[in-house]
Write a structure and sequence with these properties.
Layout lengths: L3 H23 L6 H8 L5 H5 L3 H24 L6 H18 L1 H9 L6 H22 L4 H20 L5 H4 L3 H11 L8
Helix pairs in contact: 1-2, 4-5, 4-6, 4-7, 5-6, 5-7, 5-8, 5-10, 7-8, 8-10
Length: 194
């Protein structure tokens, strides 16, 4: 038998999944609590029992997306078969692929200011900490933070340029993955023994 708490958790998850479908197909403008409820197969008022408004719903979607990124980074961090450089390329490539395949979700993740939401800050912070660990493996812990910032900015910029059509291969002779590889290759490898 399903408890009331389990039923509420299932409804909340169905609402989030419905919101993600609407977001992926039409951007934030397509996400309304009414449409989310309809997509989840629940009453109009059910969405309001879980989310006070659309902003709260979108914050929850962004939080879940950052949590999923952290899970992916955890898998990369735990893969001992990857060199530090390959692990970084894999992590940044996965983030760029998310942006390329799900641009509305990707933009939502970065549009949510960590200062405005404790849940987004916690989920994004966990992903960022794992990314810092990956950078530290290559560049050394004392250099991880500035290099991580450059790598994240480069990957985000390349992804955004690609999404807006400002990264044509015929002009730049490289795609977003090649640019990410280039920037990762510029990071001094301090993981090798002297």
């Amino acid at each position: 038998m399903v408890t009331r708490a389990e039923s509420a958790a299932q409804t909340r998850q169905a609402l989030l999944e419905s919101a993600v479908v609407l977001l992926d197909h039409g951007g934030p403008e397509a996400v309304t609590l009414r449409e989310v409820g309809a997509g989840a197969g629940v009453s109009r008022s059910a969405a309001y029992r879980h989310f006070v408004d659309k902003d709260a719903l979108l914050t929850a979607v962004a939080t879940d997306a950052w949590a999923a990124v952290a899970v992916g980074l955890d898998a990369i961090t735990g893969d001992d078969s990857l060199s530090p450089e390959r692990a970084l390329r894999t992590a940044l490539g996965a983030l760029s692929d998310l942006g390329h395949s799900r641009p509305h979700l990707y933009r939502l993740m970065f549009a949510q200011k960590a200062d405005d939401s404790a849940s987004v800050a916690e989920a994004a912070g966990r992903a960022q900490d794992m990314f810092l660990e990956l950078v530290g493996r290559l560049a050394g812990d004392e250099h991880a933070r500035p290099y991580a910032g450059v790598l994240m900015a480069a990957a985000h910029g390349a992804t955004d340029l690609d999404l807006t059509g400002h990264l044509p291969r015929e002009k730049w002779n490289a795609d977003r993955h090649q640019l990410i590889d280039l920037v990762v290759g510029m990071i001094p490898n301090r993981s090798d023994p002297p």
